[in-house]
Amino acid sequence: MRLRPARPGDWPGLWEILGPVFRAGDTYMVSPDISEAEARHYWTEAPRDCWVAEDEGKLLGTYYLRTNQPGPGDHVCNCGYVTAAEARGRGFARAMCLHSQERARELGYSAMQFNAVVSSNLAAVHLWEDLGFERVGTVPGAFRHPHHGKIDTFVLFKDLTGDR
């Protein structure tokens, strides 16, 4: 696996990964009806950084990194990660999360926060906590899951400086 910055020509492969995840509507605070153009802006243009994970030339994962809040909160970043269905369970999400933490430090961030980890996304919750993220809050019923109805989201946080 190789991680590299996303390039404009990567979009068709990224959409193949992101489209099904967004359409499923069970893990991201993104409308399942998001247009491809809106998704491209959300994932690759609005963030500060966008990376891809590839294996043998095939895109199998991606993450974005953005400032979580402006002004006095701009030292905390936020990331989103998606792994292609055929690559799940092969360590792509772990590698991308570890890489994003290093990248965040390089960009001057001192912490990372995940604002809305869907409680039913057990694999993600387990992975993020295994990588040292603390569950600092629960937002009751904040996510309308297509099968489970209203379920909780978690706020996860990690200090990137070692000071905490």
TrEMBL record:
<dbReference type="InterPro" id="IPR000182">
    <property type="entry name" value="GNAT_dom"/>
</dbReference>
<dbReference type="InterPro" id="IPR016181">
    <property type="entry name" value="Acyl_CoA_acyltransferase"/>
</dbReference>
<feature type="domain" description="N-acetyltransferase">
    <location>
        <begin position="1"/>
        <end position="161"/>
    </location>
</feature>
<protein>
    <submittedName>
        <fullName>GNAT family N-acetyltransferase</fullName>
    </submittedName>
</protein>
<dbReference type="Pfam" id="PF00583">
    <property type="entry name" value="Acetyltransf_1"/>
</dbReference>
<keyword id="KW-0808">Transferase</keyword>
<dbReference type="GO" id="GO:0016747">
    <property type="term" value="F:acyltransferase activity, transferring groups other than amino-acyl groups"/>
</dbReference>
<dbReference type="InterPro" id="IPR052742">
    <property type="entry name" value="Mito_N-acetyltransferase"/>
</dbReference>
